[in-house]
Design brief:
The chain is mainly α. The chain folds into two domains: 42-142; 146-268. Helix content is 70%, strand content 2%. The chain has helices at residues 14-29, 36-51, 54-69, 78-105, 110-113, 118-142, 147-171, 179-197, 207-212, 217-248, and strands at 174-176, 265-267. The longest helix is centred in the last third of the chain and has 32 residues, at 217-248.
């Protein structure tokens, strides 16, 4: 009995795979054809407006670091931190609203003023994650009680981002977070505010103060508060991680399938 010939597919080098993947990615973000460069130029206003939000995240991260390290005289208040976070969230909402208004007032060109084009949606997601990362890094550096939860939440963000990018490359659709992502964001915000509100008693933050008056009643009170804060921070972190991971399951909705009536958007 003659066995059928076995034909092996030609092996593709890693460099070739990377080049092909980059080309596919560009094709999904922009049109594939001679007008691709022209479309990129038309989309620059929307992407630039979104990228302009980045410094707001860096400013908040700097204030977070001072909250942990500065003395009581110059330490930013919680009102200041909440105000900076509010400005950052308002800017996130305002850039998309401004682009939609510009689209209606001017040419109506989705390429130039669209808030939901693949390039603008991708830039929006990158900026959001970069801002959150900047804040998380400062909390991680100065607050040992937060580190386990932050590691898990960061892993969740990487996994969700990779899944959404895979969907974009396969279908050409960008992903827009829905109610589940809003719940996750509010949960992360609440955890952050809890950590900052109790930062004075974060592990290792009051060592010098304790050593300066180690036999006083105040010292015993500080030690007790640090112990309680460490225990409570871990419980709050565990609850935050649980909610965050449950909402992440929503990312598999419609994965890899196109949504004809979605306008190029996979709405979660």
């Amino acid at each position: 009995m003659v066995k059928p010939a076995h034909h092996e597919l030609p092996k593709e080098s890693a460099a070739s795979l990377i080049r092909r993947g980059a080309k596919d990615f560009k094709t999904r973000l922009l049109s594939d054809g001679p007008d691709a460069d022209a479309q990129l130029m038309r989309e620059i206003p929307g992407a630039a407006l979104t990228l302009a939000r980045l410094p707001l995240g860096w400013d908040l991260a700097h204030a977070v670091a001072e909250r942990y390290t500065a003395d009581d005289v110059i330490r930013p208040s919680m009102q200041t931190l909440v105000g900076k976070a509010g400005v950052m969230v308002a800017a996130d909402v305002a850039d998309g609203a401004a682009l939609r208004m510009m689209k209606g007032l001017f040419s109506g060109d989705e390429g130039m003023y669209g808030a939901d084009t693949p390039l603008r949606r991708t830039a929006d997601g990158v900026v959001d994650q970069a801002q959150q990362l900047a804040v998380a890094v400062e909390i991680y550096r100065h607050d040992p009680d937060s580190r386990t939860a932050i590691k898990i939440i960061a892993g969740r963000a990487l996994a969700v981002g990779a899944i959404n990018m895979a969907h974009l490359v396969k279908t050409g659709e960008v992903t827009k977070g829905g109610w589940a992502q809003k719940i996750a964001n509010l949960t992360h915000l609440g955890y952050t505010l809890y950590l900052l509100g109790t930062s004075k008693y974060a592990g290792g933050n009051n060592d010098e103060e304790l050593q300066a008056d180690e036999n006083s009643d105040n010292d015993n009170e500080l030690v007790d508060r640090k112990i309680r804060r460490s225990r409570n921070a871990k419980w709050v972190g565990a609850a935050t991680v649980g909610i965050s991971m449950l909402t992440a399951l929503r990312v598999f909705k419609g994965l890899g399938r196109q949504h004809p009536n979605g306008g190029g958007i996979r709405q979660l």
